[in-house]
Amino acid sequence: MATAAVAAAGWRRAGVAGAAIGVIAAGAAAGVAVERLTVGRGMRKKARLALDASGPYGSLRGQPGRAVADDGTELYYEVDETEPDCGSGRAGGSGTGSPAGRGPRRRRLFGSKDPAPLTVVFSHGYCLGQDSWHFQRAALRGLVRTVHWDQRSHGRSERGRAQAEGVPVGIDQLGRDLKAVLDAAAPEGPLVLVGHSMGGMTMMALADRYPELVRDRVAAVAFVGTSSGKLGEVNFGLPVAGVNAVRRVLPGVLKALGSQAELVERGRRATADLFAGLIKRYSFGSRDVDPAVARFAERLIESTPIDVVAEFYPAFTEHDKSGALPAFRGLPVLILAGDKDLVTPSSHSEAIADELPEAELVIVPDAGHLVMLEHPETVTDRLADLLVRIGAVPAGAR
Fold first, then answer.
1. Do 2 and 51 reside in the same domain of the chain?
2. pTM score of the predicted model
């Protein structure tokens, strides 16, 4: 009996540790949809199931495809094509002057080819997936060609093959992965790169490795809640003593948790209420978050195995791509962050803006790390303004 009690205590500690580490390491996902329901765990579980059934978030699907990374990992992506009457989808087009709000009529000479359309490529953050762009995808659907992809070991993409063989994952690898997706899903035509958190870092790694691609094909860039480096100095809103302690033990704890993934996953499920309440702090900055949206974000991070969380974490402390930012100079650039982001603080967006002084810097009030879910209208409007500015969508499109 004593042995069973010790095992159970260890199991509970693993669950709590898994939840806490997931919050601090991932910093991306979730709120508690039912925090005010205090009548019991069963009622809270029923409420979560009801929100899962009623919320349409993450239900948008496009034409599927797979790219192959340089280590053989299959990367899943989806393409949303434009509708015929929604504009030219080409950077530099006027997007005006056509009747009934339609895009300009396209003329084609016999035997000639239309130029490749502009493609907006969305890269998601750590412990999320392509569905984290749900609101922006819904707003742009049919207006402009878009590509949404799942980073390696996330969403529907394959677990990183190099990582299965013991090779640490790094941001440079993610940049090469993005290049593979571009080669498969948008091999020609102008590009707009949009990245949240780790997705923004992936874009920086792409520019670092392939500056000629940025020079020749990228028409505009949007960085959302991301950083070019010095993430090891982020305190996650913790007191100095607390964050120093976390930094000392975190690598070892993550390694241990990753080696006991099945046990930790059971612990995460058993401590779902605690998990949701803790990570809400690191996802949202305002109190009035739609419970269905908060539950959707919670599901996103729940789908990321703890060993993937552990696998990716060291890459962020080593991330430094400030030297790649000049590759984006001269382009229309949007830099957006929440003023209450505890994971990639707005000061990191300001540092990116210092390197790109012509960029538009937007700090969103009462917004946390998942600003594109918490304040979707603000993010979508700013992104739409960027696309209108380069002629990718008509100015009057809604």
1. yes
2. 0.81
